[in-house]
């Protein structure tokens, strides 16, 4: 799969350079309407539409998350936007699913007949073709977008042969981290945010339905909503239910494909013995501190090197894009403050002293910053300074204990869910800060490197953890993967090779002793 990804990366980078060239402009301005559409679909427009599809996915999910964090989705839905929301969700599913399949059926149907076109489509679905093409869509978008903004298209050697070998997880991570794994984890995080903060049902009745209960005095929105959900769920709430699965199933498929497709197309990618070897190799790769190509630091420096040769305008555009993380953090903070002081004050803050809440939140942030400073100081202390190392270890231990005690104390003031939301907010803000430091060419700084290494470790566990669980508890998935990828004879050969590799049927070697015969004397 690496060979195909390298080939697509080479073509996408070339398309990114060709789009902004004069030749593309001159050719497009001199073609008639029908030839222009044919040239667009069969040439540079293919990469542009693939990139716009991924951009549309990001606009869709970020729009949903921002609307959920701001409370605008519940406001519009309660004001009568149910029909519009249902229509938009149906239109999204129809456009993303069906309209992308129509060109395949049309092309094969015109050449070989529509019956063969439907058969071809069915065979592609059975052999995990949608997973492969969705993964390749992410490859095209990443390299086309990077070349379009920063330039730097280069030749990538793909080889002329077709090799079948098992790629280790460290190699897969080095190859697909920036183009697929980061984006897949980001989509996963946004989908969980949408599930946590989104509005999928509301009370569609007025409080006057229970006017006698309230003695004709209008209750607060929270009081009426709670009573409506408890006493009038069937008549007032159930007809307004929105299905989260229908709204987000396509995005879940894209996120899962970008994170786990390389393992399905990697020979023996779900085999337990290979998984253990890959895990050890990945841990050794993360722990290596030199700047070679086989270490994490060397790979990280090589991936960020293109920023040194780009323009300020390109870095500014990238910085504007990275603002999406800061907006998510600000939205979480504003949503929490609104719920704390207006919507649900008794459920979020259980204490009447507001200063205690501010003091605990400030102490958590200060201790976290002090831990980062201690990590920076420890990186500057050499191994010969043993006394300073001991003092730093004591300081780290005391700060960690204080952070734990303050977190436990915060549970008396904040709920567990909101305390977890504060840590998520802090993580998103720190990640945005790390991205800004990288754009300012500070990616060699020790703090930025430590944060990036921790982030890569977390992303690696998110991607690799489910694969380890599947290979441990569902070993038949590995056999199914081999049967889908290879024919029956090759699969049988793999099973036989596994037996000999594990010495299940060891070959017995019989040693033959040579009997040396003494030469007879001539006299005898």
Automatic annotation (TrEMBL):
Alphabetically ordered keywords of this record: Membrane, Transmembrane, Transmembrane helix
Single GO biological process annotation from the record: (1->3)-beta-D-glucan biosynthetic process
Gene Ontology molecular function: 1,3-beta-D-glucan synthase activity
Chain ranges of the Glycosyl transferase domain: 2-305
TM ranges: 44-61, 82-108, 120-138, 175-197, 323-341, 356-377, 397-414, 420-439, 459-477
Highest taxon above the source species: Eukaryota
InterPro entries linked to this entry: Glyco_trans_48_dom
GO cellular component, one term: plasma membrane
Protein name in the entry: Glycosyl transferase 48 domain-containing protein
Organism: Phytophthora nicotianae CJ01A1
